[in-house]
Amino acid sequence: EKGSELPEGRPDRKYKGRAVFQGNNVRGEENYRALSEDLGSSPASMAAGKFADYVGLQNGCACEIADALRAYTQSLLSLVSNTAAWVRLPKEIQPSDWRKLRDPVVPLRLALYGHPDAGSCWEKHCNTQLAKLGFQPIPNWPGCFSHPKWSTVLVVYVDDFKMAGKAANMDAVWNAIRSVITTDEPTPFGKYLGCEHEISQTDARRLQSDIVRQFLDSKSD
User: Fold this and answer.
1) How far apart are CA 197 and CA 212, in angstroms?
2) Out of 46, 142, 167, 207, which could bridge 62 as a Cys pair, Cβ 3.0 to 4.6 Å?
3) Which residues of the chain have pLDDT under 50?
4) 3-class SS at 157?
């Protein structure tokens, strides 16, 4: 049950199912346990998300979030792993014409959740698509990108996207991202990585940063 800590009736509290790669039972052609490179991925830090909040609180700016839908399976397993994987499907979801087969297996093409390389495949796919749109990695901050032309900062934590920048540019940037990566509808930032975020009034002068303003004002047209 996702969002089980939320009150009853909240739309974010719901049951979800997931098809996964059974990583505890992976064997090679000789029936020995197979080992994977297990390359892993480098998600963004919580500090990066807070920085996006800060940018979004600048005058004329906004901060919005969106989730990639079925993120891992948007990428091909072959992007990172060169070792083919063949899988057995549970009996209850096998096509009816497989009933004549004794032990059918199929090649795993997509980076199914649970495979040790799935996170790396998704990360590489996501980064490649963002690079095509002109997003530039922020040095020493994994999962963080900037776009000088659109004056936006993007933080990617696995399948959670948080973007901040000039409010006038947000729709155009989201439309561009969603043309290459499937996400749900962007919303104003509220619950992010399990934490509720609320905006309160404060002295606007304390939120201003010359470095951030210089980025937001550069090439914004």
Assistant:
1) 21
2) 167
3) 220-221
4) strand
